Amino acid sequence: MTTIASGARTTESKNVAVAHTPTPSSEDATEFLVFEVAVEFVPDIREETFHICYGVYRATLNLPLDGGGSGYFASPNDGMITFRSGGNICPSMTTHREPLDSVLDTIAETPLVRVQASPDEVPVYAKLESFNPGASVKDRIGKYMLEQMLADGTLPEGGTVVEPTAGNTGIGIAVAANQLGIRAVFVVPERFSVEKQTLMRALGADVVNTPTEDGMGGAIDRAHQLAEELDDAVVPQQFSNPLNPEAHYETTAPEVYDALDDEVGALVAGCGTAGTLMGMARYGRERHEDTYVTAVEPAGSLYSTLHGRDVEEAEYKTEGIGTHNPATNELFEPDLVDEIVQIDDRDTHAEMQRLAAEEGHLVGSSAAANCLAAVDLAERAAAGEVDLPYDSVVTVFADSSERYLSKGVYGDFESWEG
What is the band of 94 on the pLDDT scale with cuts at 50, 70, 90? Predict the structure, then answer.
């Protein structure tokens, strides 16, 4: 075998010297990287765990300390990784081990992390979207939509985008627009967080507020009015633009399925525009027709009416998901969804605080609602009440609680402004 790295790297662990020498080999026409590990015997230590690195890959290997051993991991053409010696390995996310040209290159490839409150029989995994540079899942569509619209001529070079947004999409579009030479104008209902609006302005965008009582419908109408008044202006319109779910079909969903070796039993996500869930659901159903899909909304939202349920409309504090006018949510496809779950604001508020105190997740209210719905589904599946094609549930933690600190998210429920 020929060495593909000059020399060996030596690490120390419990007084054990370990030499890592990467070499190429092959087996069944699959390329392998082989780590030959020489272990110095140490009395009273019978086994040690070694963390092995090569490029962007990581392996954990348990070896008896009796003179050495070898660990193998494979990298087949489809990108799936299988560790061959009792440990585990997977492609690292957000490593970016080489310099990048632009902040846009840091978007996506976010971590997928186990929710500790989920049952062992059916674990829940959450995509941590606050790892994006704009700190939310909306960075994905901001970059994807603008790049695609520039490529097909919908958006002129140096033009203007005018977008109605609750805030995160504005930040995501502003991050991309700033790098692509595009002017950004956002129409935001007054009730949405000051932090989001401040960040949009910091990124060079203009922010126009509309009355809270007019809802997102009023923001959408005002955005179209502004686009007519400005030169070379277009409205990407996240609520109806097919590039929104396409971004998640092309990026978010493949990352999840790669991480779980395609064994995804259910997809759970809150619906504002519904783009995240629809893109992931379409991808999932193409891989297994029985993939279970759950849409999440706050109690008081009206998405459930699209499944024929008679629900009462009310105001809610949960931000970024839900609708008071389903007619404006053109991307939502009821046939792609098995159930629509409503989560009460009080439960969401308590879960935000639990996720921070017990699991270290500083996430916004939509993530907390998603988590409650996902864990509930996992528990029902573990109890045999719901059939899933695989014993796993995936959800999305869309953003960080730091966006909402001014609204009292970590105080008592009554002081939470929503």
Answer: low
pTM, whole model, 2 decimals? 0.77
Indicate the burial class of 195 (C-beta count within 10 angstroms; 0-12, 13-18, 19 or more).
middle
Catalytic annotation on 127? no
Q: Is residue 366 among the annotated active site residues?
A: yes
- In this prediction, residues 282-296 reach a mean pLDDT of 98
| Phi–psi pair at 14, nearest 5 degrees | 50, 45
Structure confidence at residue 26 (pLDDT): 38
| 179-220 confidence digits (pLDDT tens) | 999 999 999 988 877 888 899 999 999 999 999 889 888 998
Taking the domains of the chain in order of start, what are their residue ranges? 9-91, 103-132+242-415, 138-234
Whole-angstrom distance, CA of residue 334 vs CA of residue 340? 9
Nearest to residue 31, comparing CAs of 64, 61, 75?
A: 75
Q: Express each pLDDT in 334-387 by its tens digit.
A: 999 999 999 999 999 999 999 999 999 999 999 999 999 999 999 999 999 999
Q: Exposed, middle or buried: residue 165 (CB in 10 Å: 0-12, 13-18, 19+)? A: buried
3-state helix vs strand vs coil in the chain, percent to 5:
35, 25, 40
Q: Which of 138, 196, 317, 407 is catalytic?
A: 138
Q: DSSP 3-state assignment of 246? A: helix
Q: Which helix (H) or strand (E) segment is 296 a member of?
A: strand 292-298
Half-sphere exposure of 241 (CA within 13 A, CB side): 21
Indicate the SS3 state at residue 300.
coil
Same fold, 103-132+242-415 and 138-234: yes
**What would the mean pLDDT of 40-60 be, rounded to a whole number?**
40
* Bridging pattern class, strands 124-128 and 206-210: unpaired
Listed in sequence order, the residues at least 6 apart from 355 whose beta carbon sits closer than 8 Å to its beta carbon are: 361, 363, 367, 368, 371
Is 103-132+242-415 CATH 3.40.50.1100? yes
- Assess whether pLDDT exceeds 90 at residue 49: no
- Rounded to an integer, the average pLDDT of 103-128 is 97
Helix (H) or strand (E) holding 26: strand 16-27
Fold of 138-234: Rossmann fold (3.40.50)
B/e letters for 65-86, b = 16+ CB within 10 Å, e = fewer, are beeebebbbbbeeeeebebebe
Phi, psi of 187 (to 5 degrees): -110, 115
Residue from 130, 304, 365, 366 carrying the catalytic annotation: 366
The mean pLDDT value for 2-15 works out to 28
Residue 93: pLDDT band with limits 50, 70, 90: low
